[in-house]
User: Fold these one by one.
Assistant:
Number 1:
Amino acid sequence: MSTTCKAISAESIVQTLRACFPAHERLALHEPFFGGSEDAYVSDCVTTGWVSSVGAYVDRFEQDLAAYTGAKHAIAVVNGTAALHISLKLAGVQPDDEVLCPALTFVATANAISYCGAIPHFIDSESNTLGVDAGKLSDYLKDIAVEDGESYRNKRTGRTLKAIVPVHTLGHPVDLDPIIEVCERYRLELVEDAAESLGSTYKGRHTGTFGIANAISFNGNKIITTGGGGAILTDNTPLATRAKHLVTTAKQPHPWKYEHDALGYNYRLPNINAALGCAQLEKLPQLLKWKRSIYSTYQTAFSETPQVRIVGEPDSSQSNYWLNALQIQGDRSFRDAIIESAHLQGIAVRPMWSLLNTMPMYLEAPAMDLDTSERLEQQIISLPSSAILGAP
Ligand SMILES: *Cc1c(COP(=O)(O)O)cnc(C)c1O
């Protein structure tokens, strides 16, 4: 039996995938690539004893990240979720505020909002960028937002609409200009979830440098990894100082006294992880080339298959192609048939994340009509994208 969609079978899609990288018998979804100074830098930490939360590699990693992205400041932290949490605090998010974010994202986006005591308010995405649909959002806010002093309130819940967290989904830059217009119109703070998009640019400028404070991730499956890690990017010097303080348990600098002047967090990135990060960052330009080449391979392979779209970078953007993906025409059962069949052949493809508004902790959260997110969730399949697959 074969499941079909407009005369194309799940098996034929999987065969095309199988033929993309014939030299690789099994295809992981995303493996890290270590091919540079990783050993040397990590050994240096062990040899010198500087493995923990203070050390030269932390400072260097932060400087290198700022230089690479063009952000004025980078603050290295334990993971991307912590980077989002602190970025939202820097943006002034308070308990009981509402923060707009896509329903189609990794759960960390909404969790970080919840850690602030705020409420995620789920908004729809569009299929070109897989990110926030600013036009639809703007129409929606005309309906539900009322001016109240300095800010706008959701007239249905009475809560302040404080910020928006767009996500650069799978590495593809979201269309930021119309989102920034919505922010200006409704006095929303912009915090980018750039966890997946290090190296991607929107109109020539790096993602993660548009919002007041923005988050990147260096988890093991991201384009570069520190084992686990993340960073906050900001151009605002007082906020950068505040961020460093908050992630260092809000301890006042002193040679021996334990004085903490706020509720802080132990969110600093250890030096040994930063050492890995310095080595990985040196490799990033090469990894970006390899990722782009993986995209071309998939694109060429499916160029004669109109029923399948390989997700490409939006106009006026350069994507890091962190995770390549295909979009099928059809429903969840067709998607699952492809995923099942691929797994049997050693090809680790994945569905998108389940929509956050369907998860038990977010069932009560406010949400707009999410019809495009619902369709994308059923139709997008992430493809094996380890950088090594694009090596010449
Ligand atoms: C990976 C990821 C995060 C969180 O990063 P961690 O380092 O895993 O905490 C947040 N948002 C998105 C969209 C991600 O993909």
Note: DSSP finds eleven helices and 18 strands in the chain.
Number 2:
Amino acid sequence: MIPKAPIAALQPKRMPAEPDPAEGPVRRLHLNECPYPPSPKAIAAMQAAAGEVNLYPDPGWTALAQAMAAHLGLAPERLSFCNGSDELIYAAGAMSLEPGDEVVRPEPCFAGYHRPVEVFGAVARPVPVRQDGSLDIDGMLAAVTDRTRLVFATAPMNPTGGASTLEEIAMLARGVPDHALLVLDEAYCEFGRHAGGPDYLAAMEARTGPWFSLRTLSKAYGLAGLRVGYAIGGGDGSVVSALNKMRAIFNLGRIAQAGAVAALADTDYTAMILASNARERDRLARGLAAAGYPPLPSVTNFVMTNIRQPAKPAIEAFRRRGILIAGVLAPGYETWIRISIGRAEDTDAVLDALPEALGP
Ligand SMILES: *Cc1c(COP(=O)(O)O)cnc(C)c1O
């Protein structure tokens, strides 16, 4: 049968509706995008690369891999780049899952984790987060069985925003058996480190079984539209080797490689983004708390809060005021919203809209 049964059974993607610019300014606080444009140096590098796109890109992303390896203090052979880290989530499923295999993941979780489960006919084992939104590591380890081939952990966590401790991630790295691939999703690691959080790689390195850490230039580097993600693989190198064998040869375009190298080098600009984010996250969290909706503790570029009323109409009320925010797609979270951190004027707009959007 073409397509194969699990793929034929998939639901079409729900594309987030793009707002009509004719309706006035729009504050995009629904996808955890960076509210600032890319570094001017990255823009210049991308413009220069545009004049060379008659040529195929470097299939080994040599300059980018070397720059990133130096930045991280790792050998470039430990890295595999991709067209957005979402691709790595899919690749994790492709390398590990047969129909009927089990995938342990947190609940709620990043929406991307559903796709490999569905495409490869696997079975999800969702593990609820704890009351404060943090990963329940004991619960995740207890959900692992002989059929588990893939475990997703998100640290810092999306959509809740909290961090795990280094000890917790070490427990996970040790506790997930060698017959499962452990994927540590670190899409928000730059924000977590800026908030004083641990470097989880140190804990992951102790793992004997297969693992990779997934990171992205979409969030802290302000390059979501460029699509650059990467994996840091551990153990005997077999996971990064598998990622590189599976991937398309020219998977990262010239403009993407040039922009990523330049953005990585502009550390002052990234520092500005991280400082602004921390300041506005603090202001938004205090404003929400003052209005009676204290968010969960967050070290990321978003906050999640319980508005104790159906989220859908509230999200619509914000949208009518030109503010896009997100709901939380998991059973039991129908009254929760997630708001990305914007610039100061975005924080002001959200706090101004609160009384009307949520009622007294
Ligand atoms: C944003 C995000 C990603 C994916 O980012 P890409 O833009 O595909 O690189 C992965 N995981 C989590 C938890 C995210 O929030």
Note: The pocket of pyridoxal-5'-phosphate is lined by residues 32, 84-86, 110, 112, 154, 158, 185, 187, 216, 218-219, 224, 229 (CB under 6 Å).
Number 3:
Amino acid sequence: MRYSKTIIAAAAASISGVSAQRPSDTSVCDYYTTALLKNNTAANQATLLTLVVNTVVIGNYTQPNVGIAVPGILAKGTFNGEEVNLLPYFDGSLASSNRGGKTGVAVNFLDGGGAAPLKENKPANSESSQQYFLLTHLYQFFGSLLGCTQQGMAGFPAYSGSPSMYEAHKFMALDENELGYFITQVGLAAASFGVAEADITGVAMALQSLFGMRCSAPATVIPAQGAQLQAICIKSTCPQATAMPQCDAYAAVVEPSSVSMSMSMSAPASMPTHSGAAPTGTGSMSMPTASTTKPAGSPIPTAAGAVNGLNVAAVMAGVAAFVL
Ligand code: HEM
Ligand SMILES: *[C@@H]1O[C@H](CO)[C@@H](O)[C@H](O)[C@H]1NC(C)=O
Ligand SMILES: *[C@@H]1O[C@H](CO)[C@@H](O)[C@H](O)[C@H]1NC(C)=O
């Protein structure tokens, strides 16, 4: 899958700004696709999701942006005062992926070129990489969550990944700070493209409520996939669902183990081990840095004027108030 740089560049030239508020009968996806890329086509919706998800993963890489820095989920950070480091779940150093067995296996999800293709608005260099499947599934899943009405037409396929977010994430044993950090990066990425704070808060609350509540009852996210167990936050410290919790539906949480590199699937030779130290390996894994390289896909439009900053604390306080 390739997204045309010319589409983005052409759209940038035609941006005329975003009206103050999204009408309630227009989805977040449709509204910002129109605002940023003009035509509300399946291909443009796919481009919007690519821009946002790539930014969630590697941090802000497009120019211009509205002055909001996004570290990205692969960067170490903190949430609620706790250190968070999600990279080991993605680089093959933890046996935390569900491949149908009773325990997790290590998978390197940065095997398709790492950050470099993402900076070119692509999911991966190779369409057979784990990175490709993960990234395209994320575009598709978030496209559905955000109500992309053209998804399923040529240019933006429907979601084709695991139906249950619990099953997909269960061997990661994620806690509320890891989930909170992830959701914060989603919010920051959206803000960096000019998405209005009310829309960001709404999305963050939906993510927290669907995936951040321990013991949550089966819920439908992708209509064609029906009701599924969706809790991603499963540690005992996660807030428990208040409406009809079904703790018995979830297996006991097992911490993923660190693996030696020889055991991990498709791991590059010089991958860093999960030591808690900053990653130092290079190999074929290209880690995002605060790169000054101008991205190939620039310039990228933003819904300029919609937001000049995002009060992350306020958004997450809103999420917390909603959850608790
Ligand atoms: C709002 C929260 C989240 C959502 C909606 C979400 C969604 C998804 C989706 C749709 C997939 C693709 C599943 C597939 O290909 O079948 C996925 C995979 C994955 N997610 Fe998440 N995720 C979330 C939080 C997290 C967090 C906090 C982590 C922390 C490490 C994480 C790590 C991963 C990994 C490593 C995979 C690859 C799993 C595999 O293919 O085995 N996710 N996620
Ligand atoms: C939008 O779609 C119309 C009709 O398909 C087409 O004529 C026009 O060139 C498109 N504009 C852009 C900016 O893509
Ligand atoms: C990310 O955004 C910040 C804030 O606008 C900016 O200073 C920085 O240059 C951006 N980084 C990249 C790689 O574009």
Note: The pocket of 2-acetamido-2-deoxy-beta-D-glucopyranose (ligand 2) is lined by residues 10, 14, 38-39 (CB under 6 Å).
Number 4:
Amino acid sequence: MAKICDFIVLLLVILIFIINESISADISHENCSEVSLDPDEERNAIQIINSRGFKAETHFVITKDGYILGIHRIVNPNNTVDANRRPVLLQHGLLGSSTDWIINSPFLNASDYHMHNSTSVGNNLGFVLSQNNFDVWLSNSRGNTYSTNHTTLKTRDKKFWKFTFDEMIAYDLPSIIDYILKQTNHSSLAYIGHSQGTAIMFGLLASRPEYSQIIDPFIALAPVAYVSHIKSPIRYFAELSSALRFIGGEFLPSDKFVRLLAEEFCDKRLRFICSNILFLMSGFDENQLNMTRLGVYFTHTPSGTSSWNVAHFGQLVESSTYRKFDFGKDENEIIYGQKTPPDYDLSSINSTKIALIYSLNDWLADINDVNVLKQQLKVPLMYDYLVPNNKWTHVDYIFGKDAGVYVYPKILDILK
Ligand SMILES: *[C@@H]1O[C@H](CO)[C@@H](O)[C@H](O)[C@H]1NC(C)=O
Ligand SMILES: *[C@@H]1O[C@H](CO)[C@@H](O)[C@H](O)[C@H]1NC(C)=O
Ligand SMILES: *[C@@H]1O[C@H](CO)[C@@H](O)[C@H](O)[C@H]1NC(C)=O
Ligand SMILES: *[C@@H]1O[C@H](CO)[C@@H](O)[C@H](O)[C@H]1NC(C)=O
Ligand SMILES: *[C@@H]1O[C@H](CO)[C@@H](O)[C@H](O)[C@H]1NC(C)=O
Ligand SMILES: *[C@@H]1O[C@H](CO)[C@@H](O)[C@H](O)[C@H]1NC(C)=O
Ligand SMILES: *[C@@H]1O[C@H](CO)[C@@H](O)[C@H](O)[C@H]1NC(C)=O
Ligand SMILES: CC(=O)N[C@H]1CO[C@H](CO)[C@@H](O)[C@@H]1O
């Protein structure tokens, strides 16, 4: 009997998930109408970079399987000697994009920001690094706003969306890295990943050891690989993962579904913030969030991904492993030559340039999972840094008011 009830509830949830009556209803503006539109809400990544006095370049990187990734470069006009600036690649997380690194605050750097906290180096990591003489590249993974082109497929083809972060590991990351090295004549680059951006680098280092020489250092913000302890409602997607795998296509949860989850997980006061799938999945800390800037965050996030990608994380929650996508026994047999998907063997990573930065109030990169990750890694860590703020959450690395106080100075330290 209980089984049948579960089944019916699951069916309902799936129906609500699929039936999207109001895709165009923009919840983000519902309660911002009194506030005038922030100019950053109407700007894309390039326009934001230009508006802060930098020059922006877009580069198109074509992967071996035909995806055309739009990646952005921040060019600092005050820097005349360009040749030897060290390249640093910033890689966003699940549902993120290149704008993650440049929209946190409207202030360019610490000197403008001192009203808030004089110890801050500035709150937009992309600009902080550019002003500190780095050659800053911002990637965009397949399927997000800036990476929806393909040499043969259109986004309306279901096949376009048949990917998970496995393909970001196998194709996107190596293509982007090789492209940047070629463009800059460097033999190595610094890599800073957030969340899924760390998962894919662990995956790359585990499957292609030659990259351990190239990635120097790898700074992992809110490191994710093992996710069995996560507190986030993404747990719900664990149960939905078979359904999501079956549905396929772009990940477009209906507003109703998101509201349903928000009601389950957020107290009344905070439901508006929770109405954004990113905040709903990763949690937030009111003290770290600039409420008057939510409109900007909401227009740039969530950026797209595939249903399969979300299903993949759901599978990892259930299996307590870090392994490839589970297609089901029969297909696994054909694709992997075995019934279960192969693991990413993190114990085989031999890079000695890994820095972990994590916190205690992170729903997605839970401290217990970070500890499992540390046990798996057999190499000594270059840095092991617990953010000294007990309330620091998963999104605070990119949208936290004090990101320029607690995290970015540490990043500069590590890079120097
Ligand atoms: C470049 O330098 C000028 C003059 O000091 C300054 O006004 C401007 O903000 C700087 N631009 C950037 C992007 O740092
Ligand atoms: C902040 O930007 C100003 C120009 O806008 C520049 O003169 C100053 O050096 C920058 N400060 C830092 C810490 O980068
Ligand atoms: C800035 O943040 C640091 C780190 O928490 C804190 O010690 C300091 O008091 C803050 N300063 C101001 C002016 O808020
Ligand atoms: C797709 O490619 C064209 C040029 O090939 C470019 O103008 C457009 O911005 C690209 N779109 C995306 C989302 O990358
Ligand atoms: C890269 O190096 C090659 C050979 O050393 C040189 O010909 C080329 O101009 C360099 N390119 C850049 C962008 O520095
Ligand atoms: C890691 O492994 C790769 C491939 O086997 C090798 O080229 C590299 O030298 C190793 N690096 C270290 C630090 O042992
Ligand atoms: C918060 O966001 C608003 C709107 O973008 C902006 O005017 C304000 O300066 C921001 N405050 C901080 C501390 O970044
Ligand atoms: C989605 C949301 O939070 N909507 C709220 C907007 O503000 C009005 C009153 O100011 C509330 O009634 C809505 O619930």
Note: The chain is about 40% helix and 10% strand.
